[in-house]
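Weekly sync, protein design subgroup
Attendees: M.S., D.O., the rotation student, P.L. (late)

Item 1: inverse folding check
M.S. brought a backbone from last month's batch and wanted to see whether the design step gives back something sensible before we order anything. D.O. pointed out we never logged the input encoding, so this time it goes straight into the notes. Structure tokens as presented (144 positions):
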């Protein structure tokens, strides 16, 4: 079973809690990196915290959540070795794993309904990288 790191800012707090419950039911090992309330915090701190946890190999994958998913995905992608995909559909989640070997998923807590987000999480966590022609592109990203 994959070990999943998860972090959010205040805008993603409610959705993060729903994702935590969902992952716990599926027996994932979870590293909860905060935040733990709706009190205003800075998304770069939490995006970086999750991304660094994945980059160090302490988690197999990560999930980051802010209001739109945009800011926290930008923060996560600043960490070397991270390929964070902001997904708003099941298809995007599948393709970012198949083609980009994304190792962090970003979601918008104010954008997605809980049911949509949980479907996206499941697709992301259960889709394997396709490799092949996509490997050289992933290598190019990692070597940038």
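Designed sequence read out in the meeting:
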């Amino acid at each position: 079973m994959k070990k999943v790191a998860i972090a959010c800012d205040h805008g993603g707090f409610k959705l993060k809690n729903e994702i935590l419950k969902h992952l716990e039911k599926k027996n994932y090992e979870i590293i909860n990196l905060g935040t733990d309330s709706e009190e205003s915090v800075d998304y770069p701190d939490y995006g970086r915290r999750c991304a660094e946890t994945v980059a160090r190999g302490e988690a197999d994958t990560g999930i980051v959540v802010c209001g739109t998913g945009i800011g926290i995905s930008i923060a996560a992608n600043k960490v070397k070795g991270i390929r964070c995909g902001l997904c708003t559909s099941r298809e995007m989640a599948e393709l970012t794993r198949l083609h980009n070997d994304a190792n962090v998923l970003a979601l918008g807590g104010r954008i997605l309904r809980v049911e949509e987000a949980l479907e996206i999480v499941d697709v992301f966590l259960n889709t394997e990288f396709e490799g092949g022609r996509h490997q050289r592109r992933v290598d190019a990203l990692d070597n940038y």
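Discussion: Residues 3-142 form a domain with the Ribose 5-phosphate Isomerase B; Chain: A, fold (CATH 3.40.1400.10). The chain has six helices and five strands.
Action: P.L. to compare against the previous round before Friday.
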